[in-house]
Design a protein that fits this description.
By secondary structure, the chain is α+β, with helices and mostly antiparallel strands. It has three helices and eight strands, in the order E-E-E-E-E-H-E-E-E-H-H. It has a four-stranded mixed sheet with strand order 5-1-7-6, with helices on one face. Strands 2, 3, 4 and 8 form a four-stranded antiparallel sheet that branches.
């Protein structure tokens, strides 16, 4: 089957840290890429900046208000029979509220060494590898 590289999607994701752990979210069974793990976030709409999309997505998914964020990583991934996805990952420096699971199968605070053992989306794996190599330095510290 051919890969559809004509369609490109911009995606933002948040790295939310607490006590040396990062928040990971598991997609619902029955969704696209069922039960895969990801960092919270989603598609950037045409009229949004990355920051606006990140704020909107984390409010919709976790009911938190992002107050400050910093882009720490980006990459591109082409899913089989799917679009090219431009992923931008942001460390969430400040937020208001306590993360609540509004849309996922489950959410979990995961220590960096355990991230590599989770079945993450393919587009997130390069970041997971960098986090594992660096121990989070430059990304989460």
């Amino acid at each position: 089957m051919a890969t559809n590289t004509s369609k490109q999607i911009d995606v933002v994701a948040g790295l939310i840290c607490r006590d040396g752990r990062v928040l990971a979210c598991q997609r619902r069974d029955g969704s696209v890429f069922p039960l895969k793990w990801e960092f919270p976030g989603g598609k950037v709409e045409r009229t949004e900046s990355d920051s606006e999309a990140l704020c909107r997505e984390l409010k919709e998914e976790l009911e938190i208000d992002v107050l400050e964020s910093l882009q720490v990583y980006q990459n591109e991934h082409i899913y089989a029979d799917g679009p090219m996805v431009h992923l931008r990952f942001f460390k969430i420096l400040k937020y208001r509220g306590e993360p609540k699971n509004l849309v996922f199968q489950q959410i979990a605070w995961v220590a960096l060494p355990q991230l590599v053992g989770l079945a993450f989306l393919e587009g997130d794996k390069p970041l997971i590898e960098e986090l594992a190599k660096s121990g989070g330095a430059g990304f989460l510290s």
